[in-house]
Amino acid sequence: MGEKMEKEYGNSNANAGDRRLTPEERAARVRKMKRKRKRRLALVVTVFCLLILMIVSPIVIFAALRVRNYSLEGESPYNREEIILASGVPEGKSLLFVDVDAVKNKIEAELPYITDVKVLKKFPGTLIIRYSEAQKQFAIQISESSYAILSPSFRVIETSSVLPEGATLISGTPAVLAVKGEYVSFNGGAAEFDEGGKPLDDDSLSLLMEISNAIAENELEDINLININSPTHIYLIYNERIVLNLGDSSNISRKIALGKKVIESENQNSIYQTGVINLTVDMQAFFSEEAKKDIPELLEYFGEEKPEEEEPETDEDGNVIDEKTDEGGDSVDEEDEARASDDDKDAEEETTSESDEEDDV
Q1: 272 near 304, Cβ under 8 Å?
Q2: Which residues 6+ apart lie within 8 Å of 35 measured at CB?
Q3: With a threshold of 0.70, does the pTM exceed it?
């Protein structure tokens, strides 16, 4: 009977609860439950879509951003296929994974007659390569019969037994490491650079780049030679006739700018003027007009030796053999000779005067 009462009690409570909900309340409860189910379903669908997107989107992006075209802009002795092959970027590779700096260095290393390479990405699928033809601007003698020919950026273009016309000869450097396609190096190893493009642990290369930049900035042409043998006597040779003595490596650009003004001034006087411009004092320039044979730097450049002054020959007693002597064998100095010459002139004038008087009589 106890179990029966419990059932009736429960049924009575359930009936009582049902009786407390109005139709409107029941409808509201149903709507609420449906909204919950919809939110759960939307969350599941969203998570599923995100997972699909994460999987599919890289595939779509990689497929859409693959290299399909190459745009080559510039002049060089190489054909299109050679440049594309040297870039190391095959058709179909994703642009997202192309390292433009690595491509630039690879092209310049493998194709030494190309310089100033710039690599750009143009989405969705074009790789742009811009470049110019490397000029034979510098030369360094690496053996008795061989030169390393360098581009304006100091990359080795080639080796040659002949100094190219118009190339600036570099002398006075330490031992040279010249590998075709690589930067020339003077520290015994491959040239390395910091983020600003300055050579690391190679003072000679750093100095040459500074001088080269200063020459370009000041638009000074016809430089035949750069000599950096002495840290306190760095000099240039202009047009095979004027030496620019820069002294040390301080204020290189300012010294070259001042030297150019002196050259322009001297060229107005004569385009054949020879001499030395002393630029060792900051903000000052001194021009010394000298003959080529009296300028050691020019003689060294032309491979000549400065003629030594001939010493007069002497006899056993130390007297100069070719020195003039009088009838008694005594030496006659220049003053005595001059006085004798004056006496002879006076005597001639007296004779002429006497002859004129006789004619008058």
Answers
A1: no
A2: none
A3: no
User: Around Cβ 5, how many Cβ atoms within 10 Å?
Assistant: 9
In this structure, which amino acid lies at residue 18? D
- Give the tens place of pLDDT for each residue, 237-268: 999 999 999 999 999 999 999 999 999 999 99
Of 140, 131, 173, give the one whose Cα is nearest residue 158. 140
Q: CA torsion, points 201, 204, 210, 214, in degrees to nearest 10? A: 180
List strand residue ranges (DSSP E) for 34-152, in order: 69-73, 114-122, 126-133, 138-143, 146-150
Output the six-digit token pair for 126: 């074009």
Of 193, 114, 176, nearest to 142 by C-alpha is 176
Order across the sheet with 242-247: list the strands.
Answer: 156-160, 146-150, 138-143, 168-171, 223-227, 234-238, 242-247, 275-278, 286-289
- Locate 327 and state its tokens: 């009838």
Contact 191, 183 (CB under 8 A): yes
Question: How large is the average pLDDT for residues 2-30?
Answer: 60
pLDDT in tens, 22-39: 877 777 888 888 888 888
Contact yes or no for 237/222 (Cβ under 8 A): no
Per CATH, the architecture of 139-301 is what? Answer: 3-Layer(aba) Sandwich (3.40)
Share of the chain above pLDDT 70, in %: 76
Peptide bond into 124 cis (omega under 30): yes
The tokens 């092209």 sit on which residue? 107
- Give the count of alpha carbons within 13 A of 344, CB side only: 6
What are the tokens at 223? 């430089």
CATH fold label, 69-133:
Ubiquitin-like (UB roll) (3.10.20)
Rounded to 5°, angle at Cα 156 from 155 and 162: 135
